[in-house]
Amino acid sequence: xxxxxxxxxxxxxxxxxxxxxxxxxxxxxxxxxxxxxxxxxxxxxxxxxxxxxxxxxxxxxxxxxxxxxxxxxxxxxxxxxxxxxxxxxxxxxxxxxxxxxxxxxxxxx
Amino acid sequence: xxxxxxxxxxxxxxxxxxxxxxxxxxxxxxxxxxxxxxxxxxxxxxxxxxxxxxxxxxxxxxxxxxxxxxxxxxxxxxxxxxxxxxxxxxxxxxxxxxxxxxxxxxxxxxxxx
Lengths: 109, 113
Known about the structure:
The complex is a heterodimer. Chain A has strands spanning 4-7, 10-14, 19-25, 31-37, 43-48, 52-56, 59-64, 69-74, 83-90, 98-99, 103-108. Chain A has no helices and 11 strands. Chain A is mainly β. The relative contact order of chain A is 0.34. In chain A, strands 2, 4, 5, 9, 10 and 11 form a 6-stranded mixed beta sheet that branches. In chain A, strands 1-3-8-7-6 form a 5-stranded antiparallel beta sheet, with no helix packed on it. In chain B, 0% of the residues lie in helices and 50% in strands. Chain B has no helices and 11 strands. Chain B has strands spanning 4-7, 10-13, 19-25, 31-38, 42-51, 54-57, 65-66, 76-78, 87-94, 103-104, 108-112. The model of chain B has no long low-confidence stretch (mean pLDDT 95). The chains are: A mainly beta, B mainly beta. Chains A and B meet through strand 5, strand 9 and strand 10 of A and strand 5 and strand 9 of B.
């Protein structure tokens, strides 16, 4: 099955710093998403991005499907950005997502 | 308010005692799904449903049952829980055409002793 690897596993930054999170996947997919799980456990969709680039405020994501990776950029980090960021991939036709293990981000004030 | 609710939020039980975790959504979504989250493993799908009376296995269905008798409800049943089912469980829902835009419940932390 598809393997999803996220890096780095942990990241500690000062408020205001920028960061890049990476997601590598082992096979062709037509569905790739980024999620944020806050420190209280709530999961939120950030991006649906099987290819190309999207931006939402201080967050942006780029997926290069032909090279099987995606990047999540967080600029001017705030303490509220802390939590775990997950990448999940799959095929739209089989209604399943394969999740990476996540990157745990801690933003210090 | 559009939401996915799960009950209970926390549960400690003993091996072999049947339990049900309820999941309900008020968004008229066709798609619903159950996941478990374990440390270092991300989320893994247990079962999903595309509509009433339509369910299918995910990656880790062993030891679990589900039913979808009503569109809004998708209970997760553990007939004989075991300690390896200690985990954090999430229910999610979405529209059929864009099932992947999932709304997640708050999670249920289950401990089986």
